[in-house]
Amino acid sequence: MSLHSLMFGWEYPPLHLGGLGVACQGLVQGLLRNGVKVTLVLPHGNKSAEREVTVLSTDDFSASTMTVPSMLQPYDTHASYDIRVSNICREECDIYGGDIAGAIENYTAASVQVSKNITPNVVHCHDWMTYGAGARASQYHRVPLVAHIHATELDRTNFKPNEWIYGFEKRGFQAADRIIAVSKYTKNMLTEHYGIPADKISVVHNGASEHLTSFGKKNTISLHGRKHAPMVLFLGRLVLQKGPKQFLDMARIIHQKNPDVQFCVAGDGDMLSEMITYAIQQGLSECVLFTGKVESREVSELYRRASCFVMPSLSEPFGLVALEAAAHGTPVVISKQSGVREVLDHAFTVDFWDTEKMADCVMTILREKPLAMQLRSESSRAITHLTWQHQAEVVRSIYQQLITT
Amino acid sequence: MPSICLYFQVHQPYRLRDLRIGDVGTMDLQYFDCEKNRSVFRKVAEKCYLPANAVLLELLNAHPEFRIAFSISGVFIDQCKEYGEDVLESFRKLAQTGQVEFLAETYYHSLSSLTSLSEFLEQVSLHVRTIEEYFGQTPKIFRNTELIFRNELAHVARLMGFEGILAEGADRILGDRSPNMLFTPPKFRLSAAQERTIRKFRPFAKATKNIRILLKNYRLSDDVAFRFSDRSWIGFPLTAPRFTDWLVGSGGFTSNLFMDYETFGEHQWADTGIFDFLRALPKIWEERGIATRTPSETINAWNKSKQPTECFDAHEFVSWADHERDLSAWQGNTIQVAALQALHALEKPVKATEDPKLIDAWRRLQTSDHFYYMCTKYWSDGDVHKYFSPYESPYEAYRRFSHALCDLRQMLKSRPPHSRRPTPDLTTPES
User: Fold this and answer.
1) Do A52 and A163 belong together in one domain?
2) Does residue A392 share a domain with residue A365?
């Protein structure tokens, strides 16, 4: 039986800010290769693209993409949405929704409208903004609803949630017939903090995108043999959840012991100026570089250049950047409060708050050549087994199970 | 009908503290986690050593023909002195029955047989003297750390004066032969330099002419040690009569059951019935006319039987660890190899200090467990390594170990050589 999945997303490369878009793309491509037809509905702020149905070609396969006019962006909060909307003219506000709740309501209604004429077997939605659309579409088409959890409000806010979003999420989780969590870590979050029964949740880890798995071998040049100073890398949105402050605290400890080490903070976000100030206060102005937003080619170069990658997230459902770093053959130190540690055996794991130990792990990697060598070769090798093709096969079997029961 | 040779390994390592780079240079040899080591020792003492020794004492008294053997590492005896005189005393009580044989091993349960002949010899001699002191008998049988074995080692043990050596009955060497016979290593001479070194450091006055190899019957041993409580195993539940049937069925001259002593009460908890199982065995064996023998008695009986002794030809290392039964549990990846090499590289400067405390700390770092914890094999055996490791990952094990080594190195650098007296060159006996 051929399967058709109607999917509601937030973002899709090349227009993406974070891991969600990358994961979504990996999953769609993997599903297509497993013979599942996918129709993807995305919010789109560009007027010219309104209601335009495009066909994205992914190798030999294709997914239909529908876009819905909306100013919503992934990782939106009430505040960030308000700022963006205040920059557009009043009549457009009516289309897009004057506040985030209105915007989501508009998005939901429009999403269901555009997808009326297709006949899916399953509705699959990604993260909280799409849950309304997903629930309504699944009712309309009378097919099961799969909610895919890439992050929860609790992850994003260090357990100080916006109650409205938390409630919206929770209703979405309850409405879903099946939940896919990106890690056991997230599954625990859902059972412990949202009261979702464990047997309703399947864990499907994100895959390592194919363009990543080819990196491993190229980067075998000895990091210790080269002339420039060792560099320790942070890459992520500069928001509370990602732990940029913890990174700088760690940097200060390392800097005191080893002033030659350079630090790079790559990424943009609310906390950028605060972090720059903090770095200066900590006496790190000479050794920390803030890059702002980086393009994917620059990202690759940074991974390659780094002696060590640190992901100090306070709560990270998955943490694709750590996989990317590993794929580039960069030794990684990751937060214990993350999902990626479940698939990345060859790495140091530390509690995000234990910046002393984090610093010690980094300094050990910088000092011990055999250790760095082993982490480089083993971690990039290990993730070659984690493909989207395989992970999508698991998703396909979840679909099948749902449809037949 | 085979006789039965029971040998139990008793060992606990000194686990490392959460050492930090900032402390390098100021650790003052305080590398080990006293609290952790004490708590593990006491936990295992209560669950295994004390109750198991009580059962065995009762059995030895009730069955005067019952025989067992122990190999107790030197670092275990050290820990007894620190954390459990009661445990040491209970082993001495067993020794006093005269029905227990104690084997020789490297004092530090080390991999020194892989790195340095002189260091290896010193550790074995130290262990022999320690066993004499605590248990009043001189070991005649040698068992190397984790049953690591190859032909050369058999000859080293022979030249040291041992009458027997234990090894894993690995299929790849036995072929279709049974492990229930005694074996001999192929005949060859070690180098003159090696022989000189052995003469210099050996624990006994003279070499033995023939050394016998006792092979672990790993199927029957592991039925108890690994599978006893495995509900998915076809042999579950394992009863004393059924196990005895299997022993008899295994045929040959001797069925050698070698296992960790912690099997009783620690790997297999008391509620699995492991103690009742142990308690039931001697009586059934007695009723069915099955003898138990110590390794030395087994060798004597074999020599008297005048059977032809076949050759066990191990060119490569064999051990009792993991499915591979080779060195990969301790020397299977880059960090394990680097850590052992780096530690061994300090032998000369460490010994030149003639500082017993420093030498002792360096030797405690040689305990094989440190390298075992760094193992990254991630198939089914990975779980076994995880179960035994006190650290959260192999990399954490390496991190702590490398800090200890750095500190030791720094200490050696900052310290002038002990004296102007020429110190014996122990690392290169050939010169």
Assistant:
1) yes
2) no
- Asked if residue A183 and residue A67 are part of one domain, the reply reads yes
- A31 vs A288: CA distance, rounded Å: 42
Q: CB B20 to CB A360 under 8 A? A: yes
A341, A364, A367, A377: best to mutate for the B interface, most B CBs within 10 A: A364
Q: Measured between CB atoms, which of A257, A348, A369 is closest to B395?
A: A348
From the list A257, A345, A361, the residue facing B22 with the nearest CB is A257
- Residue in the block written with tokens 């019952």: B66
**Residues in contact with B413: Cβ distance below 8 Å, sequence separation at least 6, in sequence order:** none
Q: Where are the alpha helices (DSSP H) in A320-387?
A: 320-327, 355-367, 369-382
Q: What's residue B218's pLDDT?
A: 96
CA-to-CA distance for A321 and A318, rounded, in angstroms? 9
Q: Which residue has the tokens 């989780």?
A: A173
pLDDT bin (cut points 50, 70, 90) of residue A74 is: low
Number of domains in chain A: 2
CATH number for A369: 3.40.50.2000
Q: Which segments within A138-271 are labelled E, that is strand? A: 145-149, 178-181, 201-203, 231-235, 262-266
Locate the chain B residue with the closest alpha carbon to A365.
Answer: B399
Task: Give the distance from residue B395's alpha carbon to the nearest chain A alpha carbon, in angstroms.
Answer: 7
Integer-rounded Cα radius of gyration of chain B:
21
Query: What is the DSSP-derived secondary structure letter of residue B185?
Result: P
The rounded percent of chain A whose pLDDT value lies above 90 is: 54
Q: What is the pLDDT of residues A387-404, one digit of tens each?
A: 889 999 999 999 999 998
Range of the domain at A133: 3-207+387-404
Spell out the residues 6+ positions from residue A197 whose beta carbon is closer than 8 angstroms to its own.
A191
What's the average model confidence in pLDDT over B32-53?
97
Q: What's the pLDDT at A118?
A: 85
Identify which of B135, B130, B128 has the alpha carbon closest to the alpha carbon of residue B97: B135
Inter-chain touch B21–A368, beta carbons under 8 Å: no
CA distance A135 to A140: 9
H helices present in B97-150, as ranges: 112-115, 117-135
B315: CB partners within 8 A, 6+ apart:
B150, B151
A47 and A20, same structural domain? Answer: yes
User: What are the tens digits of pLDDT across the range A168-221?
Assistant: 899 999 999 999 999 999 999 999 999 999 999 999 999 886 665 555 444 444
Query: Exposed (0-12), middle (13-18) or buried (19+): which is A84, by Cβ within 10 Å?
Result: middle
Question: If interface means Cβ-Cβ distance under 8 Å, which residues of chain A face chain B?
Answer: 257, 345-349, 356-357, 360-361, 363-364, 367-371, 373-375, 377-378
Q: Which two tokens stand for residue A234?
A: 């942070």
Same domain, A264 and A376: yes
Residue A102 in this model has a pLDDT that exceeds 90: no
CB-nearest to A370 from B20, B338, B376 is B338
B267-319 pLDDT, tens digit per residue, is 999 999 999 999 999 999 999 999 999 999 999 999 999 999 999 999 999 99
- Please tell me whether residue B237 adopts helix, strand or coil conformation: coil
The model carries a pTM of 0.89
